[in-house]
Amino acid sequence: MKTIIILFSSLAFILLGNSAPAPVLDFEGNNIRAGKRYYILPTLEKEEYGGLDLKVGKKPCSDGISRSSADDNGLSLTVNPVNNKKGLITVSTDVNLKFTDSTGCNESNVWKLIYEKTMKRYAIVLGGVEGNPGQNTLYNWFKIAKAKNGYKFVFCPTVCSKCKVKCSDIGFVTDKDGVPRLAFSNDPYVFNFYGVG
Questions:
Q1: What is the C-alpha separation between 28 and 120, in angstroms, rounded?
Q2: d(CA 55, CA 52)
Q3: Secondary structure in 3-state letters for 148-192
Q4: Cα(59)–Cα(75) distance, integer angstroms
Q5: Phi and psi at residue 67, in whole multiples of 5°?
Q6: What CA–CA distance (Å, rounded) separates 17 from 12?
Q7: Which stretches are transmembrane (predicted)?
Q8: SS3 of 4, please?
Q9: What residues contact residue 22 under an 8 Å CB cut-off, 6+ apart?
């Protein structure tokens, strides 16, 4: 009888241990930490673009997030999880994403999702609310998921149990001005984290 209980306990420990979400790692294999600054750069060396930046146009602050030139790391950002007790970022956990560099915009640097009529899809802009998880901040929460050779952004928040959410990968979609912008996409943007400083 003791053997069965020990085996059952060992099996339960293994199963429960494997159910914990994996930590998100930077390019060097270090854990991503809440509040630390990172550049988001494409995984493929043949990519013709650098990091993330605001769209250049008449209204860059409200026109969304695009790509910087190939030799530019773009804007750095922080990743802040819904539960910030340990400061560790794990895969498929709700997080706020926030540019840390000065953008010159009046609104906050926190990412949020809006429906972009001209693109006929949901796209990412600035002006979100950091923290305060729930129905009122639903569109400010994203997830980081594992992808081939790196990670991808996903919109599928679980901060509101009674809310109905349309989940999607996030990738670059060309807008009416011919500029690639982060938006709902079947072709996710695959990237790695690079620590700043």
A1: 38
A2: 9
A3: CCEEEEEECCCCCCCCCCCCEEEEEEECCCCCEEEEECCCCCCEE
A4: 17
A5: -110, 150
A6: 8
A7: none
A8: helix
A9: 90, 91, 146
Say how far apart CA 80 and CA 116 lie, in whole Å.
25
Does residue 7 surpass a pLDDT of 90? Answer: no
Q: How far is CA 169 from the centre of its chain?
A: 10
- Where does residue 78 fall: left (phi above 0), alpha (psi -120 to 50 degrees), or beta otherwise? beta
pLDDT of residue 183 exceeding 80, the answer is yes
For residue 172, give the nearest of 90, 26, 53, 32 by alpha carbon. 53
CA separation, residue 156 to residues 4, 55, 74, 113, 141 (Å): 41, 24, 25, 11, 8
CATH topology of domain 24-195: Trefoil (Acidic Fibroblast Growth Factor, subunit A) (2.80.10)
Average pLDDT value for residue range 31-38:
95
Distance CA 37, CA 40 (A): 10
This prediction's pTM: 0.85
Q: State the Rg of the chain over Cα.
A: 18
Give the HSE-up count for residue 113: Cα atoms under 13 Å, Cβ half-sphere: 25
Any idea where the domains of the chain sit in the sequence? 24-195
Answer whether 131's CB lies under 8 Å from 96's CB. yes
DSSP state of 137: G
